[in-house]
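Retro notes (design track)

What went well: tokenization of the new backbones is finally stable.
What didn't: we kept losing track of which sequence belonged to which structure.
Fix going forward: every design gets posted as structure first, then sequence, in one message. First example under the new rule, 263 residues:
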């Protein structure tokens, strides 16, 4: 059976409805839950000190990723913000600045980086890894819409306003579907109130994985399930990457992302 592989062949996926959008108010609760879960999160694997660069989502800045960066720093990583202020999309000079930062950190540490991106920040992480695969160890995205229809999100109008770019050109959006040539993990939530969760699914391959969490879009980067999953991914040896292990107790917290969609 023919399987569509272009976003414009998939049809217009619906953006999340009003109920899921209303559930985005739980983001504050997720931050509180991460604080309450500190003793459990401290049991996540420790890191090897390699550098990690974190990218914020649309119309947010480094303050939004501070809880995540503090947690990863506590696990033993050299963590860096993107340092370019509010993320208003790929404006003139932004990509070059990101590439310059990536190259500088790789030189300073003498080793490759892991890139972590939240929502639109995940697009940056993926595309930078495609441009500099020699200095990127792995990519982790959270609620990032890299596939499906680009308007299957409640934020596309905000994106157009913030960036001045129109959404929908196949020559721009189609290349985003291709994963980087490095291990890549997409963390997504079926209850995401901003991005249709299907738009955050990587196709199966030897170096891609999907991890489902119960989280809001706005709180995903502070959700304790997300924090643990990121720590688990980062702790792997550079040349021994494996998909996320959902056996044992983890099967209760992290559902099988391949299960049949019910909503």
């Amino acid at each position: 059976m023919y399987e569509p592989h272009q976003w414009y062949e998939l049809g217009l996926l619906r953006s999340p409805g009003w109920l899921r959008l209303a559930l985005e108010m739980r983001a504050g609760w997720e931050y509180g839950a991460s604080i309450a879960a500190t003793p459990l999160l401290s049991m996540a694997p420790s890191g090897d000190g390699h550098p990690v660069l974190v990218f914020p989502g649309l119309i947010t800045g480094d303050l939004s990723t501070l809880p995540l960066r503090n947690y990863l720093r506590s696990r033993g990583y050299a963590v860096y913000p993107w340092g370019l202020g509010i993320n208003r999309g790929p404006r003139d000079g932004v990509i070059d600045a990101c590439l310059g930062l990536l190259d500088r950190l790789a030189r300073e540490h003498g080793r490759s980086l892991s890139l972590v991106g939240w929502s639109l920040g995940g697009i940056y992480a993926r595309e930078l890894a495609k441009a500099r695969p020699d200095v990127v160890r792995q990519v982790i995205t959270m609620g990032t819409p890299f596939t499906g229809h680009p308007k299957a999100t409640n934020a596309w109008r905000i994106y157009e306003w913030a960036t001045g770019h129109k959404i929908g050109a196949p020559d721009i959006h189609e290349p985003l579907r291709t994963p980087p040539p490095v291990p890549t993990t997409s963390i997504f939530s079926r209850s995401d109130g901003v991005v249709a969760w299907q738009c955050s699914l990587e196709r199966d391959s030897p170096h891609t994985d999907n991890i489902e969490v119960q989280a809001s879009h706005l709180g995903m980067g502070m959700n304790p399930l997300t924090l643990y999953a990121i720590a688990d991914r980062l702790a792997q040896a550079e040349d021994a990457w494996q998909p996320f292990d959902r056996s044992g107790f983890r099967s209760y917290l992290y559902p099988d992302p391949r299960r049949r969609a019910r909503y």
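Added context from the reviewer: The chain has one domain: 7-234.
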